[in-house]
Predict the 3D structure of the following.
Amino acid sequence: MADTQISFKARLILYHRGRILLLKQTKPNGGNYTLVGGTVESREFARQALIRESFEEAGIILREEDLELAHLLHKVNGEEHRIVFYFKAYRWEGELKAKETHKFREAEWFYLEDLPRNLTSTVRHVLEAYRHGQLYSEYLKK
């Protein structure tokens, strides 16, 4: 039996005036739109990781009490299992911009009903499940 790898991620569904925030990746990183977020590091909880990643990637300052669990994804890619916590928020501070310019070109707002075509397949899957009120979903990477 092969060794199973498990990782934990946290992502942000940030609302502003009825739209959500997406980051546009640079071409070397795929060139698609994705949500703010990243890996939960050792000695971090998911909300703490998301607060850190949100500031590093987009200059957003969040508070734990403003984050509400919106969706949980179990993604399988070969022997890797990834658990991703999606939190929604309506309040933040800071100067919004794509800060990690080697990974992201810009930050933009989109309506859930009018998402860009070049959205990563995982984020598209999650946002569709989220729109239908599903708290949990599974995704098999092919």
Observations:
- The helical segments are 46-58, 121-131.
- The CA atoms of residues 15 and 90 lie 5 Å apart.
- The radius of gyration is 15 Å.
